[in-house]
Amino acid sequence: MDERIRWLEELAAQEKPKVEAYCKSIVDARMYLIFRLRFIRCYSWAEVAGVLGKGYTEDGVSRMAYNYLAKN
Q1: How far apart are CA 25 and CA 32, in angstroms?
Q2: Considering all CA atoms of the chain, what is the largest pairwise distance in Å, rounded to the nearest integer?
Q3: Closest CA to 51 of 67, 38, 66, 65
Q4: At residue 60, what are phi and psi to the nearest 5 degrees?
Q5: pLDDT at residue 55, as a whole number
Q6: What is the pLDDT of residues 28-70, one digit of tens each?
Q7: N or C: which end of the chain has fewer CB within 10 A?
């Protein structure tokens, strides 16, 4: 199990620059923040919504992100 965890950590480290580059390509500041928090910092959707503030929900921010991915 430890070996599998190490392999997954190495794989994640290799993919991180690609994810960061994608995030940097996002022009919309709010969407950029959503992607950075969720996919770089590994916040939960609830935590992302909490950072964005009142009026944002877990379902709402996840829907925003996945809609953005579907369009781009």
Answers
A1: 8
A2: 43
A3: 38
A4: -65, -45
A5: 93
A6: 999 999 999 999 999 999 999 999 999 999 999 999 999 999 9
A7: N
Distance CA 20, CA 52 (A): 20
Give the whole-angstrom CA distance, residue 2 versus residue 20. 27
Number of domains the chain contains: 1
Structure tokens that stand for 56 in this block: 């944002």
Q: What is the pLDDT of residues 9-27, one digit of tens each?
A: 999 899 999 999 999 999 9
Q: Are 35 and 21 in contact (CB under 8 A)?
A: no
With CA atoms as reference, report the closest residue to 64 among 44, 39, 37, 35.
35
Give the range of the structural domain holding residue 17, as residue numbers without chain letter: 2-71
For 48, other C-beta atoms within 10 Å of its C-beta total 23
> Rounded to 5, what percent of the chain is helix, strand, coil?
80, 0, 20
